[in-house]
Every structure is written in structure tokens, then in C-alpha cells.
Amino acid sequence: MNELLQNPIVQSSALPFAAGLLAAAILFPVRLGGLAAAAGFAAAVVAIGNFALEPLTATRKIVLIGGAAALFGALADLAFKPTRFTGIVLGAVFAGAALWVFSSLLSQKIPTEVAIVGAGLAGFTWWLVAATVSLHYDMVRAGAAALALGLGAGFAAVLGASGLLGQYGMALGAGSGAFLLLVMVLGGRVQAGASLTLTASVVAALIASGAVLLATLHWYSLIALALVPVLVRLPLPRGAIWMQAVVACVYAFVAAGGALAVAWLSARGWKL
Fold first, then answer.
1. Domain ranges of the chain
2. Omega within 30 of 0 (cis) for the link into 111
3. What is the pLDDT of residues 65-75, one digit of tens each?
4. Other CB atoms within 10 A of residue 189 CB
5. Which DSSP string do the residues of 191-208 spell out, in sequence order?
6. DSSP assigned state of 239
7. What are the tens digits of pLDDT across the range 147-158?
């Protein structure tokens, strides 16, 4: 059993998917099925076992902020109904958190680079959170966006030579995929809410940003990922919800695939 749990595929895919599916199945009656993404992410953190508060590295800060995003999202779903301004406000909050996460890395750069890179990462985080949280009312589009963001950020991080961040991203995607599967089975009874959209967007933004700073992931990949919550808004066909979910995933993975293409080309030495 220990050997199985130490398998990277199990840690980043199978176990997070099972944890996400269990969380979604248990919590959807109380409108918290979206915590499937957080459950998948947490399962990978526990399985990999590379977490401690000391020393508090950028990667460990990502885990802390990811947990905070899940908590904020759950509180938002339980305490009030998210509005169109919720994503804008939360985006600003977690953009500031992103600067804290990467403060040690930014401090190693010259002041001009700190300003440019810091503003770019904060802007990217703000946009991704604001645009994704605004999908909270649509479980199909939100689920597809969360799935594409997790897998897109995860695989791009792997191509950018950041294995741990890649596993975290794939686990986020696996948990989100479990949520989307439940939506395809149960339909409108499963709600995404901020518990899904906030967690997925914050963690994906931090993983992708971390891969840019810590590894060799090209910043063009961030632009492609930023298009995920835009493309999932394209029209969906009428009919069965599973068909809508498949089409929404196709839209989302066009953008996520762009991030992977950039990461692959960059890894092969292409100058972009």
C-alpha cells in the first residue's frame, strides 16, 4: 500500500480524483460540492508529504493560500450569494496574497524587475480569480474551467521542470474533474459556487506563477491560461448536460492547450 501511495500518478491523479468525488458526493446537498477541487489538492499535499511550516517556502505558501481560498469560498457560499462584484474583490485580495507568496523570490531581483514582474503576477492572479469566480452560478462552465486550469497549470509546470507544482496542479484538476463528473450525473442539483471557482483559480494562478519564477515556464503560458474563463463562455448546445460539459471542456482545453504548447516549445529551446 505504501508503494502504491508513493506512485506519482496515484498521488497526483487517482487519489485526488477519489477524494474529490467523495467530497462532492457528501457536500453537494449543502451547496459545497465545489470543495471537491480543494479535497483533490489536499489529498496530493498529504500523499506527497512535503509540507511543513518551517521553512516557509514559496511552494508551502501556495498550499496555505490554497487552503485559505477554499475556506473563503465555502464561507461565501454559506454566508451570502456571490454577486458580480465578489470576484473583483476576491481577485484583489488574492493578488496581494500572490505577492506575499513570491516575496522571497521577487526580493532577489532588481527594483525594476520587482515592479514589472510583481505587477504582472498580481494582475494575472486578479484577472484569473475575478473571471473564474464570476462563473460560480454555472456548474458546467465552472467545472470545465476548473478542470482545464488545474490540468493546464499542472502539466505546464511539469514541462517547465517543476515536478512538485505539476503534481499539485494535476491534483487540483483531478478533484475538479470529479466535481464535473458528478454534475454530469446529477445535473443542476450540484452547485459550483465560490468554493470551486475561487479555489481552482487561486491555486492554478499560484502554481503557474510559481512555475514561471521557480522554473523555466515561459510567461506566455499565463496569457493562454487567462483565456480559459473566457472561452468557456462560448455558446453551449441545448440538450443533455453531459454534452454541454464535454463542449465546455473542449473550449477550456483550447486555452489550456495553448499554455502547454508554449511550455513545450520553451522546454525544447525555442525562443518565444
1. 8-267
2. no
3. 999 999 999 99
4. 12
5. --HHHHHHHHHHHHHHHH
6. S
7. 999 999 999 999
